[in-house]
Design brief:
- The protein is of the alpha+beta class and 137 residues long.
Length: 137
């Protein structure tokens, strides 16, 4: 992918990817540099969707992990309350009525402790709709 296209893609779509980087101590510049390779390996898609989060985190940290969350649970809405009991920092997606969401990192009291954007209407006005948390194996 050409450099300007890659920057545009990261700017629009990388909020979950960048949240994983923040939570796991991964250098986002390294992930940016490796983007084409990560797409070739099927870890990311061309719009920064994290297809294999376990492999992404293991690749950069050397630690075996399992990413859990509502993606693997069809009762996602009911699980948001359970997420609050995990007592781990993790990515949380907040969405507005229009269905658009933004991933941020929250602590166990749902306080946003990291956001890849300076400001997000989704974070200010949205409600939690999805979550992930990383468990060491």
């Amino acid at each position: 992918m050409k450099i300007q296209t890659k920057h545009e893609t990261f700017g629009k779509f990388a909020c979950l990817l960048l949240s994983y980087c923040e939570v796991c101590g991964i250098d986002p510049d390294k992930v940016f540099d490796d983007f084409d390779s990560l797409v070739d390996k099927g870890i990311l898609d061309s719009e920064c969707t994290v297809k294999q989060p376990d492999k992404l985190i293991t690749l950069y940290t050397g630690k075996s992990v399992k990413v859990k969350g509502s993606e693997s649970n069809p009762k996602a809405g009911k699980q948001i309350a359970r997420f609050r009991n995990v007592k781990r920092w993790g990515p949380l997606n907040k969405a507005n009525d229009d269905g658009h969401g933004h991933w941020v990192v929250v602590d166990d009291s749902d306080t946003v402790i990291w956001n890849s954007l300076d400001h997000s209407d989704n974070v200010d006005n949205g409600v939690p709709v999805d979550y992930r948390y990383v468990v060491a194996l």
